[in-house]
């Protein structure tokens, strides 16, 4: 079959017309004719052979891509996870994690949106327990997932959304997407901490969704620290570590602050939470996007161009999507 594959470990993926055909192996699997696949950092890490899921395995050529959209046997368009790679003429997907697309939904958006939603709505709703009226701080919001987080926080009823980032143009765009206030991260540590503290004193921060960790997360936690009196409870949810995997954390912050430190990612999600995402949260977001209430910027190319565009530099708020037609 036609597919985009990695022929040699660490090599740039290439288009081929004669890769082995995939087959359904159980009643829990179904075959999907693939239409569009988004390319994420995870896909690049797997393709490079560096991701922990493949780094220790004996290499053999494989189809790239983890998830995407396509056509089912009954003609419906749907989203699903490829069990043996996604960017082929056909992919085997888990029947329990197939989500039908609303009529008229853009296929590129449908392929790119779910990953960003996993990194935003699960963190906000299921880990951070976002409630209507909450004040939400999104740290590192200028990327695709952060942009979706800003929009979904507003959709779920946040009274105020504060977004941080380094790119001033991207921060200005976040205001168009619903952010009430933005903070530039490229300032000195003391002034950044003060900026967070001023916001927290004016309108207590209920939920922090953190994509960066590192110094900016340290500044936020320091800004939340109390001064001998009870402090408003804040749920701090870490989703990523774009600014580094380590930071210093004073134990006095935990003792002097009513703070919940949480993580959101595979390993912290229960089976019930994952099922809720596929059965409720993702279909709801698909409907919202189809009606124009949720936006994501995609850049699409035909799969025969994969070697040319694999390393293409896009802006932090864009997602590469590969179309099979």
Outline:
This protein is α/β, with parallel strands linked by helices and 325 residues long. It has 2 domains: 3-114 and 293-323, Quinone Oxidoreductase, Chain A, domain 1, CATH 3.90.180; 120-263, Medium-chain alcohol dehydrogenases, catalytic domain (Quinone Oxidoreductase, Chain A, domain 1, Alpha-Beta Complex).
> Percent of residues in beta strands?
15-25%
Biggest β-sheet description: 7 strands, mixed
**Rg calc:** 21 Å
- Classify the helix fraction into a percent range: 25-40%
Count of β-strands? 16
Q: For this structure, what is the CATH homologous superfamily of the largest domain? A: Medium-chain alcohol dehydrogenases, catalytic domain
Structural class: alpha/beta
Order of helix and strand elements from N to C terminus: EEEHEEEEEHHEHEHEHEHEHEHEHE
Name given to the CATH architecture of the largest domain: Alpha-Beta Complex
User: Low-confidence spans: pLDDT under 50, at least 5 residues?
Assistant: none
Give the end-to-end Cα distance, rounded to a whole number of Å.
14 Å
| Number of separate helices | 10
The CATH C-level class name of the largest domain: Alpha Beta
Task: From the 3D structure, determine the CATH topology of the largest domain.
Answer: Quinone Oxidoreductase, Chain A, domain 1
Number of domains: 2
Mean pLDDT comes to: 95
């Amino acid at each position: 079959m036609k597919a985009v594959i990695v022929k040699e470990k660490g090599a740039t993926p290439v288009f081929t017309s004669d890769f082995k055909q995939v087959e359904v192996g159980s009643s829990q699997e179904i075959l999907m004719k693939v239409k569009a696949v988004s390319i994420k950092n995870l896909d690049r890490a797997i393709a490079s052979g560096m991701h922990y899921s493949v780094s220790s395995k004996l290499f053999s050529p494989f189809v790239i891509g983890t998830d995407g959209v396509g056509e089912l046997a009954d003609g419906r368009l749907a989203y699903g996870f490829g069990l043996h790679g996604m960017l082929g003429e056909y992919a085997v997907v888990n029947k329990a994690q197939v989500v039908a697309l609303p009529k008229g939904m853009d296929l590129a958006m449908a392929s790119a949106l779910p990953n960003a939603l996993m990194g935003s709505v699960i963190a906000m709703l299921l880990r951070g327990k976002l409630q209507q009226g909450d004040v939400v701080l999104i740290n590192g919001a200028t990327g695709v997932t952060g942009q979706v987080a800003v929009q979904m926080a507003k959709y779920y009823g946040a009274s105020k959304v504060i977004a941080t980032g380094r790119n001033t143009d991207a921060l200005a765009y976040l205001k168009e997407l619903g952010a009430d206030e933005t903070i530039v991260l490229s300032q000195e540590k003391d002034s950044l901490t003060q900026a967070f503290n001023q916001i927290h004193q004016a309108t207590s921060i209920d939920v922090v969704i953190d994509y960066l960790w590192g110094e900016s997360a340290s500044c936020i936690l320091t800004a939340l620290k109390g001064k001998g009196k009870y402090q408003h409870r804040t749920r701090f949810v870490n989703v990523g570590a774009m600014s580094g995997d380590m930071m210093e954390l004073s134990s006095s912050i935990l003792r002097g602050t009513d703070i919940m430190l949480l993580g959101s990612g595979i390993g912290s999600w229960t089976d019930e939470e994952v099922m809720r995402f596929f059965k409720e949260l993702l279909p709801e977001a698909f409907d919202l996007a189809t009606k124009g209430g949720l936006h994501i910027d995609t850049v699409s190319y035909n799969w025969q161009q994969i070697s040319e565009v694999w390393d293409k530099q896009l802006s932090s708020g864009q997602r590469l999507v590969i179309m099979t037609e």
